[in-house]
Amino acid sequence: MNKTVNREQILSGNMVRAILLLSVPVVINSFLQTMYNLTDTYWLGKLGTEELAAINLVTPVQNLVINFGAGITVAGSVLISQFVGAKRDEDARSMANHIFVCAMGFAVVCAAVVAAVTPAIVTWLGAEGETFGYSKIYMQIAVLDMPFLYMVNMYVAINQAQGDTLRPMLMNVLGIVLNMLLDPLLMVVFQFGVAGAALATMFAKAVPAVIAFVILHNKKRLLYLEIRKMKFDREKLKSIVKVGLPSAVGGSTTQLGFLLMSKSVFAYGTQAMAAYGIGNKINGLITLPSNGIGSAVAIIVGQNVGARQMKRAQQGYLLSRRICVIFLFVGGMILSRMSVSTAIVKIFSDDPEVIRMAADFLSIMAFWCFVNGIYNSTIGLFQGCGQTTVNMVVDVARLWVFRFGTLYVCQEILAMGVRSVWYSVVVSNGLAAVALYFVYKTGCWKKAGEPKEKESTPEKKRAVN
User: Fold this and answer.
1) b/e per residue 73-100 (b: at least 16 CB within 10 A)
2) 10 near 87, Cβ under 8 Å?
3) Is 81 in contact with 302 (CB distance < 8 Å)?
């Protein structure tokens, strides 16, 4: 898709068409990303419940580190999109270079540190025996793919900020195909087991990462990387920290909450842990349209804020929210039927008890998944106008206040057993959606989203916050 057409479409074209052009490729791209994990889950389910539980136990640790670093790429997407909307292409290009250096530096350092402390982390999670061994092996290999992951994430952020969501989707097609081929080859044929799952994912990300690196250095693009000529700009670095730090703190704090949730689930046994992992991954597929439209909202709002078109930014948000809620409500009613959820779960496990618990979890989440439409679209609104602090506060409250509060009531007062976890998830998501809605109604996003005036002197240009 032509980048200029995308910009004009976002700033002045038909809004429904803009939402679809942006969200459909993002949904497909998110689906492909989710397939990385689902492919591992499928083949590990064939190996055994212990292997499946081991990966589900340590996945939140990976996500914690990844989400902290993702604050950098979130900042990049927001700030670049606002520069693009304001038609300040040189500033957008400079910001892309700043974000690249920060993200890759973070990825390399974190990969080394996490690999070194993995045994201590797995011990703290309570894993023993075979589960400890499988968790340790998987995590130490899996974290090494972080530089590759961040390279692809940078490619996605830079392209999406310009309104190009198609090419990132095509990039990930290659990765998922490679992963699907490598999983059975390394896990079953070569009998690498859990290590094979981690290696397959790493190799599948390495190839797209190399391609992304080459493409991002193509000077024929509107935005390209030119690290050797880059000079750090203090104001741009401050903007990255201002927008990115709340996303980093919110994302990592949320993932820490997920980690403690995993520890709580593991107390019910490996079967419960396996069921929890399966249910979460399938629910991730159900809510992909919501996530995709949320990303589209961030792009639409970001560019329109940069162009100072606040009414059009709000129009994009309201229309996207309506589409999200209706789609998820209809889909959720279908998938919440126990017969449907059971049939889906059986794809990933042969264990009757795992199937029973996972189907129960999935049916409950699917019934209430429409609240994700409000949550994701409103998150996209605040992200697009650079108000990531709001997202951070609500995200942290969602896990640490709403979810753990509900979990305590269900476990200690209502004695609901493992179903306490299932209901804590849906209740916390609903309360977070309500909280975001009320913050939106205050109108604070409009004032916060107004970009600063461009300085008259080129060397004093400031990033839009």
Assistant:
1) bbbbbbbbbbbbbbebeebbbbbbbbbb
2) no
3) yes
